[in-house]
Design a protein that fits this description.
homodimer; about 350 residues; alpha+beta; 60s Ribosomal Protein L30, Chain: A; Phosphoribosyl-aminoimidazole Synthetase, Chain A, domain 2; seven-stranded mixed sheet; four-stranded mixed sheet; 10 helices; 13 strands; PurM-like_C_dom (chains A, B); ThiL-like (chains A, B); magnesium ion binding (chains A, B); metal-binding (chains A, B); PurM-like_N_sf (chains A, B)
Chain lengths: ~350, ~350
Amino acid sequence: MSERTEVSSLGEFGLIDHLTKNVEIHNASSILGVGDDAAVIDHFGKQTVITNDLLIEGVHFDLMYTPLKHLGYKTVAVNISDICAMNATPTQIILGIGFSNRFSVEALDEFYEGVYTACDTYKVDLIGGDTSSSQKGFIISCTAIGEVAPDKFVTRKGAQKSELLCVTGDLGAAYLGLLLLEREKKIYLENPQIQPDLENEKYTVGRILKPEARVDLIDFFAQNNVTPTSMIDVSDGLSSEILHLCKQSNVGCVLYEEKIPIGEETRAAAFKFNLDPTACALSGGEDYELLFTLKQDDYDKIKDNTDISVIGYLTDEEAGANIITKGGNKYAITAQGWNAFK
Amino acid sequence: MSERTEVSSLGEFGLIDHLTKNVEIHNASSILGVGDDAAVIDHFGKQTVITNDLLIEGVHFDLMYTPLKHLGYKTVAVNISDICAMNATPTQIILGIGFSNRFSVEALDEFYEGVYTACDTYKVDLIGGDTSSSQKGFIISCTAIGEVAPDKFVTRKGAQKSELLCVTGDLGAAYLGLLLLEREKKIYLENPQIQPDLENEKYTVGRILKPEARVDLIDFFAQNNVTPTSMIDVSDGLSSEILHLCKQSNVGCVLYEEKIPIGEETRAAAFKFNLDPTACALSGGEDYELLFTLKQDDYDKIKDNTDISVIGYLTDEEAGANIITKGGNKYAITAQGWNAFK
């Protein structure tokens, strides 16, 4: 970066004006946006779906290998993913950031460039925010807002015995992308002369640095009159999410290892690390795909969508949550997902 | 504190269950609360007002003299104050916290005790949240949600020439409470044997540690059919807020020093520090009173409310924002409020 403008030269209100001067509004529901004590939305008879995530440098992201523009995009995408997991349409975000004095106005501009790109992609409006200094590092608070027809939201609680267990896209790639970035970071720290070698790893690295929320699937459900009976987004790994759905819906399940969708690049990357690709899909996390359950009668509506895989079915709660391996063995599914406190 | 339970012994989901197990719901609009990907609200035809604040240890609060219970209460109160500043009724909050391993489950319980007390006081529902570790200190992200009849919200933009400039309660006390706490901290750090001497300073110290949002005034406005033409809450000091209203409404103003409401305890505390009480009210901040403008025709509706002071009137923009001192001199109002980046 050639220029460095200190944030203190703008002041708090000047900075907010600077960062939001090009904000665009896509939704009629955004009644009042940035610049007052609070924002106002009107979903015109629909219900409002709302979620908040706190993202902290050194815990949720590493700026050594995360470009600020990608971080801005990902912040919006992962929050919108939670809105999608309710079968709702995302409409607005509110963004608060805290940062130490190592961040210049140009660095914040890069972050916001990613935020605005995501706002365009997902047709959501930035309607409010907060900026603050921090004692250490970069801190992001993102609130995402969406809308859904009254009582048409989908929770984690509605799954019933005999229904289908389905997942969108493919799994495990984000975790392998993270391992690759961590490996290159270690090599770089040991010898800064060596350039990173990530040329053939675009898919996995892209999945961790710039994930997408599956708004397209929510649109597909609406167009094809499909209503999942329960849904959750895959942020902590497939195992952990399956256990959430089973516990909250009071059901068990059978998951078939051979049905878990895993991409070719992901398999290749897993083998390089001597890892089982299935284990990466089960425990990896950060894929931001949608895990959902479906009545069997609805199977015909989804069977031609190559972005949806049926990976198992639901059973009585007493049978527990189990996986049938490719070899035909049956094991209880255990959560080895990410635990922020360990 | 006699016990110390490590957060890691509960895990992320166990901690969330623990902190939210006694959550109470006060509003029919809270359709779905804690425990899913997102929360759902239905304001039944009303508009939704929403705001978010990021509060960072060492920047916005000092845990050396801020009890965690008070911090929890204040977090909710200051966010609700922003909802009140839109002339809206607060209904829900979403709370995200990040904390280092120096915080035990018992410490978090204390914080949440304050949060729940505030939820009871203001009849708002905690409907979602996020917990995370942090590399350093305590980080709070609070989203407050409220409702207002369609297009009845009050912004900073509606003030017009000749209208009255009004403020609720009294000003300057929170800043003096902060000075007192900072002085006692310094004394304590120099000599830990000396006990803090804050016995006669309950009012000022209470104003900084446990501020209240003026929901009562929003109720008063509704009951007496009063609609302010513009409104803002006093978080950065009276000067700064007056300049916001004037700039966004394209008006000037005359403020009378003698009309600024300042309590006796506040004056006494100011004199101890050799400070001008008026300067404390103008630049102090954190009072969380409401500054608003009113049509002259509405004066009769508010004149008997001893909690509202008329402190000046609005003029043409060209005349600027001015204060008339007790001695009869006229000065331009300048913002010396808190700047988080200096």
